[in-house]
């Protein structure tokens, strides 16, 4: 039998998990949704939900994975044999499959911009990024081609395995991401009128919040931490049994919150300073940020570095999405490279309509949304909350409290933390999810 795969170090595990968490959500989606939902109030709501809902769920997934040492589906089977609970694992695998299919579309846009940078089509001070963006997303050849490239990189890394693939890549990509962000924030904050952007972010306008934006923030708190889909179950199953999970969970949540706020601080001051609309929507990052770099000395080089790091953040999330599907099929029996190619190719094909929905298929609509938006809505607002709800119920009602306690804490000084976590997971998480969900779907 093959040796079971494991992370080579705790920091490797933390960086890979933070890599899964930090991605398009923090850098692209949160900023533009915040822009459309009135700024600071939305961010505040997101921070609160991350701590009260996301964090307990992250710990719950870590417990399932580390205690069973198994990938998403088998882990539930081992804890609750002969029951249907392992359907949570299937739900997670399907959700990640769909998610990666449209995630790779945006990954492709980033790759296109990198190519533009290398071939001198961006930078130089007089590029109309609005037109460039429209061209990139509407051209079927460019967008599908770049999406394929993004998937190929993901497939190769996941095919290499945990230590030599995902861990090695994350250990390099994540620290680099932090450093570049700081450079970017300094630039953005020193632009004229930058303060307007800061106050947009820090002065919450609660009147802009409604039940829809609350569901959105709730969805984001799952999406940004990669919880509710058992990705973190799979990742923590590669952790040696005796390893603590509390500190890694804190680190992942903290890094994720930092980057989310960093992203806002890098983007909004620039948006206001350059006279753009904060509510620009999905194009915010691809249109506004390049314009910011245009104003810098050596702007093209900075833009390129930023794009590469943005790509890294997206890739490290994509690795986890493909990994959970590959791991659930291979079940530790090997053949990972071949499976990675097979599954990755399927994901790519399923993602093509999402890509085309920005261009040639833009007239086609599902439930009043484009294919891309419908897939995103299904994943972020329906499948992830359902997955999160089921995981919280599974861990807090199906698993024994004494087992959970011994899994979670080795030292008695954490007893209070355990009780708080248990309470949140058993009562607060499910109730909040159900209430928000029912309200938004207008059932109550
Ligand atoms: N957390 C990732 C992001 O913010 C998305 C993701 C969700 C990745 C679920 C894996 C699992 O971009």
TrEMBL record:
<feature type="transmembrane region" description="Helical">
    <location>
        <begin position="85"/>
        <end position="111"/>
    </location>
</feature>
<keyword id="KW-0813">Transport</keyword>
<feature type="transmembrane region" description="Helical">
    <location>
        <begin position="416"/>
        <end position="438"/>
    </location>
</feature>
<feature type="transmembrane region" description="Helical">
    <location>
        <begin position="215"/>
        <end position="238"/>
    </location>
</feature>
<dbReference type="InterPro" id="IPR037272">
    <property type="entry name" value="SNS_sf"/>
</dbReference>
<dbReference type="InterPro" id="IPR047218">
    <property type="entry name" value="YocR/YhdH-like"/>
</dbReference>
<keyword id="KW-1133">Transmembrane helix</keyword>
<feature type="transmembrane region" description="Helical">
    <location>
        <begin position="141"/>
        <end position="162"/>
    </location>
</feature>
<feature type="transmembrane region" description="Helical">
    <location>
        <begin position="42"/>
        <end position="64"/>
    </location>
</feature>
<keyword id="KW-0472">Membrane</keyword>
<protein>
    <submittedName>
        <fullName>Sodium-dependent transporter</fullName>
    </submittedName>
</protein>
<dbReference type="Pfam" id="PF00209">
    <property type="entry name" value="SNF"/>
</dbReference>
<feature type="transmembrane region" description="Helical">
    <location>
        <begin position="296"/>
        <end position="327"/>
    </location>
</feature>
<keyword id="KW-0812">Transmembrane</keyword>
<feature type="transmembrane region" description="Helical">
    <location>
        <begin position="12"/>
        <end position="30"/>
    </location>
</feature>
<feature type="transmembrane region" description="Helical">
    <location>
        <begin position="174"/>
        <end position="195"/>
    </location>
</feature>
<feature type="transmembrane region" description="Helical">
    <location>
        <begin position="374"/>
        <end position="395"/>
    </location>
</feature>
<feature type="transmembrane region" description="Helical">
    <location>
        <begin position="250"/>
        <end position="276"/>
    </location>
</feature>
<feature type="transmembrane region" description="Helical">
    <location>
        <begin position="339"/>
        <end position="362"/>
    </location>
</feature>
<dbReference type="InterPro" id="IPR000175">
    <property type="entry name" value="Na/ntran_symport"/>
</dbReference>
